[in-house]
Write a structure and sequence with these properties.
alpha/beta; binds zinc ion; 16% strand; four-stranded mixed β-sheet; five-stranded parallel β-sheet
């Protein structure tokens, strides 16, 4: 079961960038808040190094500017540097021009620091939805090779229910493709449910995560597993949130590192860019 490489990725941002804090910690306050991203990322990097696994880090431009040595270190350790935009604004709140500027700015900082071309993008809060599908065209124009921002599920903040569950070409022009790599899901009769990422990894039993990846791998499909480094921080600052948000945001943090370690032992992982490249090559060779 270990043979299919699944895509492992981390969205690197500060703990206060999560959408649930958008009104509590607006952008003007970010500079006053405790920065924990470097220590959190180091913890994840150590877990990956111990298992000899490389992953993709979709890094926020705002973080990259302030943690330059961290970005260089992540790249030097063999991980892929992806782009998480600059200001962590959901695309659903941006005009096309604002989106383009935000992504361009982050991409330039990340490429400058890593010395490599940034090929992958993940939107804040998976905000490529039916209303913002235009973002994919713009990502193609900006030279990205893949996006990983569409969750094929029903959710109050994001998701395109019924969209493909496995990697597919979203834009293809002039002989160049932009792939979409959706988050892992489980298909049950009449419904597709999320698995293996963020709160779904933290809150659902490990057996759920394992079942999702196994089911996808059994069909020869890679799964996309994602997390945020703050989701492994047992000393995460506690903000006063409504009960449901509190459970969604803080639940399962204590057991998350154990779950990730188990995943790293039981499945094969690679940076998302490499998994996409593998699929693209296979498609080319088989003509499908
Ligand atoms: Zn984010």
């Amino acid at each position: 079961m270990k043979s299919i490489p699944n895509a492992l990725s981390f969205d690197l941002e500060e703990w206060f960038h999560a959408e649930v804090f958008a009104s509590l910690f607006p952008r003007e306050k970010w500079g006053e808040l405790e920065s924990r991203s470097e220590a959190q990322a180091d913890r994840v990097l150590a877990l990956l190094a111990t298992s000899g696994v490389r992953a993709t880090f979709f890094i926020l431009g705002w973080i990259a500017e302030r943690k330059q040595s961290l970005v260089r270190r992540i790249a030097a350790e063999g991980h892929e540097i992806g782009c998480h935009g600059y200001s962590h604004t959901m695309i659903t709140m941006q005009s096309r021009a604002e989106f383009r500027e935000d992504v361009k700015r982050a991409k330039a900082v990340l490429e400058d620091l890593s010395g490599r071309q940034v090929r992958g993008y993940r939107a804040p809060t998976f905000s490529v939805t039916r209303e913002t599908l235009w973002a994919l065209e713009l990502l193609w124009e900006m030279g990205f090779a893949y996006d990983s921002s569409i969750y094929p599920i029903r959710h109050d903040r994001y998701g395109i229910p019924g969209s493909p569950r496995v990697p597919y070409i979203a834009v293809e022009r002039e002989g160049r493709a932009l792939w979409e790599f959706p988050g892992a899901t489980i298909r049950l009769p009449g419904i597709t449910l999320p698995a293996a990422g963020g709160g779904y990894l933290r809150l659902f039993p490990y057996s759920w995560t394992r079942a999702a990846i196994r089911a996808m791998n059994r069909r020869g499909r890679p799964a996309s597993i994602f997390a945020h480094p703050w989701e492994f921080d047992v000393e995460l600052p506690r903000a006063d949130l409504p009960l449901l948000s509190r459970i969604r945001h803080y639940g399962g943090i204590k057991v998350n590192a154990r779950k990730l370690n188990r995943l790293l032992r039981e499945f094969c992982f690679a940076p998302m860019g490499e998994v996409v490249e593998g699929i693209a090559k296979e498609r080319e060779s088989t003509g499908r």
